[in-house]
Amino acid sequence: MKFRVTAYHQHLLRDHERLSAFYEAIASAAHGLTYDLGAGSGVLSFFASEYADHVIAIERDPRIAACAWENLSGLENVTVVNEDALEYEFKERADTIICEMLDTALIDEEQVPVLRRALRFLKDGGNVIPAAVINAAEPVMIKGGSISYDENIRAPSSGPLCVYDRVDFRGRIPEKFRGTLKLLASDSFNAIRITSFTVPAENIICGPTPMMNPPLILPLGDTLEAGYFRVKLSYKMGGGLDSVKAELK
Ligand SMILES: C[S@@+](CC[C@H](N)C(=O)[O-])C[C@H]1O[C@@H](n2cnc3c(N)ncnc32)[C@H](O)[C@@H]1O
């Protein structure tokens, strides 16, 4: 099937690792009335249309919503709505909610605010795809001193990756992360790198892919020697990179 898309969504469609992980999850869990929040080109709605009775694809960007409408127009059980999912009036409770507005540690996209609101319209026992996100951190050595994604830098690791949080999308989703990370450095370091793993369904786990969750570097200011150390970390999920605070304790 050929999809009409914008340049950004073309890259998303070419990310086969991301798509295959979501396809597996949708094939195993999507059913009944399914909302696809942040539907983009409509690709996940297209997958879901095979398993769900009715898919409502909600996308706020009018340009890509028009593409989704065209891409999905041949499917009788899909409705495309050009609206902000934070304002959409849900009329019926869903069996499944799909929401792929993922970003590293859920900081820079609206996955969490959108799901916190939409979960009120999920039936008891309903499914959310993805099911969860797991966040991990490790010490790294970087040149330069600003928060940045590690797509091109690939900073060398100075110690093991340590899981510090899991956000489950079916229960009560917190608005913020606030905690102290206890990490080990086997070499000198001046930053931490956050890596997010997506759990599309409970039996699937997916690390960063070309278009999903690029690792995020948070500078710490000073260069420290090897050893155990603690970092006080906080951010608002959906609050953007400006909400991130990382300081050595
Ligand atoms: C990472 S893209 C994923 C698109 C599609 N789900 C896919 O997997 O290819 C996220 C999409 O969510 C849309 N989006 C972001 N915030 C939104 C909101 N509050 N309401 C509706 N759509 C939103 C963006 O415009 C974008 O198309």
Can you describe what's shown?
With 249 residues, the protein is of the alpha/beta class. The chain has 2 domains: 7-100, Rossmann fold (3-Layer(aba) Sandwich); 133-248, Hnrnp arginine n-methyltransferase1, CATH 2.70.160.11. The chain has helices at residues 7-14, 16-29, 43-48, 62-71, 111-118, and strands spanning 33-37, 54-59, 78-82, 94-99, 122-129, 132-140, 148-149, 162-168, 176-185, 189-199, 216-224, 227-236, 245-248. It has a 5-stranded parallel beta sheet with strand order 3-2-1-4-5, sandwiched between helices. The longest helix is centred in the first third of the chain and has 14 residues, at 16-29. The mean pLDDT is 96. S-adenosylmethionine (SAM) is lined by residues 12, 38-41, 43-44, 58-61, 64, 84-86, 100-101, 110, 114. Residues 36-126 form the Methyltransferase domain. GO terms for molecular function: histone methyltransferase activity; protein-arginine N-methyltransferase activity. InterPro entries: Arg_MeTrfase, Methyltransf_25, SAM-dependent_MTases_sf, UCP006607_RNA_methylase-rel. Keywords: Methyltransferase, Transferase.
Please outline the helices and strands:
Blueprint: H1 7-14, H2 16-29, E1 33-37, H3 43-48, E2 54-59, H4 62-71, E3 78-82, E4 94-99, H5 111-118, E5 122-129, E6 132-140, E7 148-149, E8 162-168, E9 176-185, E10 189-199, E11 216-224, E12 227-236, E13 245-248
Parallel strand pairs: 1-2, 1-4, 2-3, 4-5
Antiparallel strand pairs: 6-8, 6-10, 7-11, 9-12, 10-11, 12-13
The structure holds S-adenosylmethionine (SAM).
InterPro entries: Arg_MeTrfase, Methyltransf_25, SAM-dependent_MTases_sf, UCP006607_RNA_methylase-rel
GO molecular function: histone methyltransferase activity; protein-arginine N-methyltransferase activity
Pfam family, one: Methyltransf_25
